[in-house]
């Protein structure tokens, strides 16, 4: 598996984990967990985008 594909996969995983954390924080009214989830979602989006950009430069 190419590094760019790994970055995209890991980025999507971080997005999903962040979404779950954010929802769990929202349901339990835990503001800290909600913020951690948002941060992890953003991190995942950045990593996924970096993987896409890297894939385009490989061609």
In a nutshell, what does this entry contain?
With 59 residues, this protein is mainly α. The chain has helices at residues 3-28, 31-58.
Explain the layout of strands and helices:
Blueprint: H1 3-28, H2 31-58
Helix pairs in contact: 1-2
Region (Disordered): 1-59
Protein name: CsbD family protein
Family: Belongs to the UPF0337 (CsbD) family.
Description of the molecule:
The chain is mainly alpha-helical and 59 residues long. It has one domain. The chain contains 2 helices and no strands. The longest helix is centred in the last third of the chain and has 28 residues, at 31-58. It starts with a helix and ends with a helix.
> What value does the Rg take, in angstroms?
13 Å
Strand % is: under 5%
Class per helix and strand makeup: mainly alpha
How many distinct domains?
Answer: 1
SSE run: HH
Number of strands: 0
The biggest sheet amounts to: none
Shape: elongated
- Uncertain runs with pLDDT below 50, 5 residues or more? none
Average per-residue pLDDT, rounded, comes to 92
| Portion in helices | over 70%
Query: Distance between the terminal alpha carbons, to the nearest Å?
Result: 15 Å
Number of helices: 2
Biased composition (Basic and acidic residues): 1-24
Domain CsbD-like: 7-57
Protein name: CsbD family protein
Family: Belongs to the UPF0337 (CsbD) family.
